[in-house]
Amino acid sequence: MFSFKSSRRAVARAAAVVLAGAACAAVMTGSAGAIVDGQDSTRHYPFMVSIPVTGVDDPAFKGVCGGSLIDPRWVLTAAHCVDTRLVTLDGTVRIGSDRKDSGGTVRSVTEKVSHPGYRNGEGSGPNRDDIALIRLDRPVAEKPVRVADEPGRPGTPTRILGFGTVDDAPDPAEWVFPDRLQELDTRRGAVSECAPGYADRTRLCTVSRVPGAMACNGDSGGPQLRQDRKGRWELVGVTSGPGAPGVRCSEGPGLYTSAPAYERWIHEVIGHDG
């Protein structure tokens, strides 16, 4: 997650920093606080997906992105998680487990489709049209999450999920990546709560309801959820990056691609699945 620089080598290094989920055994110490200052998942999320990735210029780098099962054969994630300048997908994804490396259902990836308008902010601003779809080789039994009709007004309670680092220390060597899925209660923020030019109709400003907490490196592509009137989860956002330039994860706010804003594109891509 977060911004990338322009040169290919810098981009690869940024990918190692941004998408890190299992980069170094020395910092993989099991479950700690949470996303950053969230908590271990309190419910079962059958639609949660973990997506292993490898650095382009550094094959020794192993990372992770998140995703949401929105159809028995399709996963929604961030476009920068499948950006071939940065990383390559390891070829499989894990669906429906609260553990990053075990449980759930594993499927092979047969296709990945980024939005045609996707642009990486590369440190100068927010990612644009940061949304992508991954097609699985076979349908899964886990129940998909429904894409919400609209994201809700500012102030709407939401929840974010991810396997990203629980510590946003300046030194990546000090980051801690949990095996257990993390969750954090958040809310829809007003456009004015993110930096000017960051939030708009397609990019949701997201504010933590817990002090000093937000999604971080390795949470990219994961879901932002809200509950409908019957208490069922529905998808409103896809983790994209920070809501202001140069902020640490725990300082917030976060920026999420609005899933409802791209519902037509999603249906067009999935509709071609024969």
Task: Describe the secondary structure blueprint for this structure.
Blueprint (H helix, E strand, L loop, with lengths): L7 H11 L20 E2 L7 E8 L6 E10 L2 E4 L9 E3 L2 E4 L9 E10 L17 E5 L9 E2 L9 E6 L19 E7 L14 E6 L14 E5 L5 E10 L11 E5 L4 H9 L3
Parallel strand pairs: 9-14
Antiparallel strand pairs: 1-11, 2-3, 2-5, 2-6, 3-4, 4-8, 6-7, 7-8, 10-11, 10-13, 11-12, 12-15, 13-14, 14-15
Please outline what is shown here:
By secondary structure, the chain is mainly beta. It is built from two helices and 15 strands.
Can you tell me about this structure?
This protein folds into two domains: 8-31 and 45-144 and 263-271, Trypsin-like serine proteases (Thrombin, subunit H, Beta Barrel); 147-260, Trypsin-like serine proteases (Thrombin, subunit H, Beta Barrel). It is built from two helices and 15 strands. β2 and β3 (62-71) form a beta hairpin. It is mainly beta and 274 residues long.
Secondary-structure-derived class: mainly beta
CATH architecture of the largest domain: Beta Barrel
Main sheet, how many strands, which sense, barrel?
6 strands, antiparallel, barrel
> How much is the radius of gyration in Å?
16 Å
Total count of helical runs of at least 4 residues: 2
Strand order of the largest sheet: 10-11-12-15-14-13
Q: Classify the fold: give the CATH topology of the largest domain.
A: Thrombin, subunit H
Mean pLDDT: 84
CATH C-level name of the largest domain: Mainly Beta
